[in-house]
Amino acid sequence: MSVENVLELIKEKDIQFVDFRFVDLSGRAHHITLPASEVDGDTFVNGVAFDGSSIAGFRGIEESDMVMMPDTESIFVDPFTEHPTLNIMCNIFTPDGERYDRDPRSIAQKAEEYLQKSGVGTAAFFAPESEFFIFDDVRFESSMHTSFYSVDSDEAAWNTARKEEGGNLGFKIKVKGGYVPVAPVDTQQDIRSEMVRLLQESGLRVERHHHEVATAGQGEINFRFDTLTKTADNLMKYKYIIHNVARQYGKVATFMPKPLFGDNGSGMHVHQSIFDGDTPLFYEKGAYANLSQIALHYIGGILYHAPALIALTNPSTNSFKRLVPGYEAPVNLVFSKGNRSAAIRIPVAAVTPKGCRIEFRTPDSTANPYLAFAAMLLAGLDGIKRKIDPTALGYGPFDRNIYELSDEEKKEIRSVPGSLDEALDALEADSEFLTEGGVFSKDFIDNYVAFKRQEAKAVAIRVHPHEYSLYFDC
């Protein structure tokens, strides 16, 4: 959409405010709002200034001036503001007009540019399945003398005996028993449908929604694939709408990977493929799972670089509470067709040549989508460039249920790192594939690792409530 068309839309929709947004290192959105009367063609040329030193992981106070440059292809009308507001995603530039190399959105765009220059294809398509919980109550505290969290849900298995409901209505969801039940077990049909309605109004093509496996209100909404940066924009929009619809219903939504102990966590399975013009490059009829050699090499790149990748696709200490065996978590670095116990699954049901794709099941939604999608693409392209054969490296195909293997058999299968620190160690040891084409800078990687080390340390040095259960009577 041209600048002129955006300005015309502002008049046509009687927009009163324009919200300029950018994304920080952790993947959280920030915004500055201008009255629509202050927005004209020059705004899209000169951008909107902000203080980069106030954003964690960005700039020092001595070099804090930064500029948001709006992308007119990313606009949508905010469905929650009382005053009509147009939202626009922005890239970040320095005052001298240079792309800021720590801007996640610019990194995503550079990854797309690198793909086009590589000669492999013209576009990479991504489709994340970002799961979430909707709770009725959440409380937590972490201080010198207190540390706890408590969440509650009308659907939760632990509430079968609760009296506060004014007569318990039963039909609670059992642990690991929440996959696609109908009402009255699924109490959140209307909430998810309202989320879908607003997602559609904001421009997303939504394919379906349903309750997910865990108790206590786990859900999933799937929206249609798009190119890398657009999909990351769409995921930011998706999370914004889900968070705010839940709030309108007096509930709270979270994309935290493991908010509950003892039940399934929330992942972000990422479907991906590469096209050259209109030609799908991952399809070869009659081959294993109808996968082309390019697709197999792409898989090889992701599995080979997976320990380093996970520092970007699962970048929280909580991520590794989900990445444990026994809860459908894809901790096994192998590929397989239709097998959900593998890190990479190749969907085979009702798949057309253009729909042929791989699904990397390990990531979660604490990931910054711009960084995670860019990193996955670069790992896959490195696999294509180097012709990394996943079968020769022992990554499969593995068409058995890995969860049912003996401990001895499991020893032969490479697993994901066991902690955020281990993943960061892997990223420090294996980052050259990310710096190809100048997509990620060495400065960015060093800064990112230091930023995430602080998070890991903050959790590691704090007293954990379960330690009282284990050690208080020593």
TrEMBL record:
Family: Belongs to the glutamine synthetase family.
PANTHER family for the chain: GLUTAMINE SYNTHETASE, LENGSIN
Enzyme Commission code: 6.3.1.2
Pfam families, per database record: Gln-synt_C, Gln-synt_N
Name under which the protein is recorded: Glutamine synthetase
Keyword annotations from UniProtKB, A to Z: ATP-binding, Cytoplasm, Ligase, Nucleotide-binding
Organism: Paenibacillus cisolokensis
Bilayer-crossing regions: none
The keyword Cytoplasm belongs to this UniProt entry's keyword annotation: yes
